[in-house]
Amino acid sequence: MKNRYLILFSALFIASTAISRAQSVDSILGMGQEILQKERIFSVKGIGMAFPIGGVSDVLRPRFSSSIGLQILAKNRKHFLYPSLDYLNYKYDQINLESDYDYKTRNANATFYMGSIAYGYMKNIKKFRIFGSAGVGAGILNEPRSRIDVQAGEVNYSNKSSLSGIIKLNTGLDYGARRFKFFAELSYMQNTRKIQGHNLQTFAVNVGTKTNLFRLARSIDGIRKK
Predict the structure, then answer these.
(1) In this structure, are strands 154-176 and 128-149 parallel, antiparallel, or unpaired?
(2) Among 52, 78, 110, 111, whose Cα sits 20 to 30 Å from the Cα of 26?
(3) Do 169 and 115 share a structural domain?
(4) Beta partners for 139?
(5) Stated pTM of the model
């Protein structure tokens, strides 16, 4: 008899947990749908260049950078959250010989992936909007390394990967209609990790577009009805 009560209690607990989770998911979807319907979420896509600042410029030469993210407006539409992912690509010249390697790597390619979330404020001037934001995040730094196998006549390349925290400051200007805008952006990024003994600081210039995601509200409505 006790076993039956235990099974019944377990089944009720699992069912209630499943229902509460379903309600939580539905409430989250409902909140997202409401924000989308009010046209407060924009997808952000940009491309440009990120210039190294200071001594690290002896190691890195800018090639190109790109960014994707979301601009999520508050109810008064002046404040916003800005989660983003940046991709930075550089020509890389190693200046310090490391004990694990016999040669320096030069004329190679370095790639950095940076994720951040920022809080910002914007000022509307007719169809123009001036914005600024500040945030924190983390990223992966991939530095190239090489080994030479003289007997085999081969050069073997690999990446030295490391994690870095970041502080990011943005400012810029966008122009356009309510649902589609062009933007130009300047951003400063300070990393906690050093490159070849130098502080990693970058100053990026990006241009791109912001597109409102209001149409996704219909898709979410379809999911909630299933």
Answers:
(1) antiparallel
(2) 78
(3) yes
(4) 114, 164
(5) 0.77
